[in-house]
Specification:
It is a single chain. This protein is an alpha/beta fold. A 5-stranded parallel sheet has the order 3-2-1-4-5, sandwiched between helices. α1 links the parallel β1 and β2. α8 packs antiparallel against α10.
Amino acid sequence: MTGNALISVYDKSRLEHIVGAFARHKIKVISSGGTAQAIRKLRHEVVEVSTYTGFPEMPGGLVKTLHPKIHAGILGDWKDPVQEKYLRENGIEPMDFVVVSLYPFREVVKSYPVNLRRAIDNIDIGGVTLIRAAAKGAFLNNRVVPLTRPAQYDVLIRELDKHESIKDELRRKLAREAFAVTAEYDAAIESYLGKVKG
């Protein structure tokens, strides 16, 4: 198959496996910041998010993937004539796979429980937004596949290698797991902030 994969991962373990699978199946990889650097070190091709969107990352990496060309690519329906016209006219490509792992908020607040600034710096915004958009897109258009942890890579790779496509059953399972990830993440943030004094 061909298509596009957006990859933005804090946890870069097994990155070579998923990127290698995408390369075998001629799936273009779009990535940001440190993930793009890691992919280049693995000697795989990658398109920087800022190159694709035409909009530079915000200093400090606060805003990287929050862009209409990214999210319309995740949520857009190329089978809907009105949407297809909008997507084509704005140079938006479909994001068929969204591979994201979040900043380690729980680990940070466990190690530095009284450092509020450090905790806030480790609240992932773009990653959560990507995961939720991809999970919604999985159900909305039966097209997008969200991956939220390296342990999921093998099942996706086997499916790609065997069928050159992803079955709806797997797509929806991964989408449900994605919603669980963001729910648990937000619950951890709320729990921590509820305990902060001052």
